[in-house]
Amino acid sequence: MKISTRGRYALRVMIDLAEQNLDAFIPLKEVAERQEISRKYLESIAQVLSKAGLIEGAHGKGGGYKLTRSPADYTVAEILRLTEGSLAPVACLEGATTECLRADSCRTLPMWTEFERLVNDYFEGITVADLAKTSMPFNYVI
User: What is the pLDDT of residues 35-88, one digit of tens each?
Assistant: First the structure.
């Protein structure tokens, strides 16, 4: 499993918005400058986040983006699943559309299933509010 730039940048956008005035719309240009990410690329990420209801946008003067919920109400897992599609380590765990003919006899499936559970539990336990804090201890065990 490799998290793409899309997933990593989506997290950065959400953290950046969480660190700003939560009641104000923040221009994407400012987020792009702070995060040193192409504005054009951020526009495509913001569109995905907005369409899913994680952020809301406003056009015109005073426009930009803001979070729709408290930073503590967004998990890393939610954002990564939205941008990555799946956190499954192997194709056979990506959903009902990919059925493995060897699932009944696969000796490694239980290992991959447990690994996927650990990854999901770990990311479910971290919120945007946690990431916005400067001293989050990432060496804790869930």
Answer: 999 999 999 999 999 999 999 999 988 899 999 999 999 999 999 999 998 888
Question: Average pLDDT of the chain?
Answer: 89
Please tell me the predicted confidence (pLDDT) of residue 134.
Answer: 63
Q: Is the pLDDT of residue 110 over 70?
A: yes
Compute CA distances 30 → 20, 63, 135, whole Å: 11, 12, 24
The secondary structure of the chain as a DSSP string is ----HHHHHHHHHHHHHHTS-TTSPBPHHHHHHHHT--HHHHHHHHHHHHHTTSEEEE-STT-EEEESS-GGG-BHHHHHHHHHS---SSGGGS-TTS--TTTTT-SSHHHHHHHHHHHHHHHHT-BHHHHHSTT--TT---
Radius of gyration, CA atoms only, the chain: 17
For residue 30, give both structure tokens: 């400012």
